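Re: Re: ligand-bound prediction request (bumping)

Still looking for help on this. To restate: I need the protein modeled with iron/sulfur cluster bound, output as structure tokens. Inputs repeated here so nobody has to scroll up.
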Amino acid sequence: MDKSVFDRGCRACPRLAAFLDEVQEKHEDYYCRPVPPFGDAEARLLIVGLAPGMHGANRTGRPFTGDHAGILLYQMLHKFGFASHDESLAADDDLVLTQCRITNAVKCLPPDNKPVGAEINTCNDFLANELRLLPAASVVLALGGIAHRAVIKALAMRQADFKFGHATIHDLGDVKLLDSYHCSRYNTNTRRLTPEMFEGVFVQAQTLLRE
Ligand code: SF4
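Reply:
Sorry for the wait, this slipped through. Here it is.
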């Protein structure tokens, strides 16, 4: 993979690198590295999550794979024709994404799922490069406010001009940014994000891609 977009050996965030080492000691079979983007390199739909989950992406090495956060996401991707299957089990299963790619604003597992500002900023260069490589008329689906702000920052735009809002579409010139609440266990269990709401966001994404 293009090193400007992802570096498996990156340890630029000392706190995260140390935390990955610590987790690796406890869980020898876990991936415990920066997690690469997954999907179609030519995709016009880029989904941006927050960061790998401890027992999900950090364990398997694929975004939203192996824990609760990916269940609804891959179901929707399959329903809307972006994924060959409705679940992502492991980095070496035969799941294929078409016209869609998933990445994270922060590529390494943060303690308590909370990256600090400096880590979001340091990893933002990778995201900026990934956004730069998107084809014309692409759609970026940001899952949650942190992902939304990371995208705005990566495109060097003013945060004050583009506030996060579920199901809100922001015209960023070359790309359209679509916001959704994150499909985390917490948000789905509390019904802050219902399957119907998430499906509605995918309808919006599909409509934008067809415009
Ligand atoms: S979060 Fe990003 S910038 Fe920081 S160490 Fe991981 S890959 Fe590198």
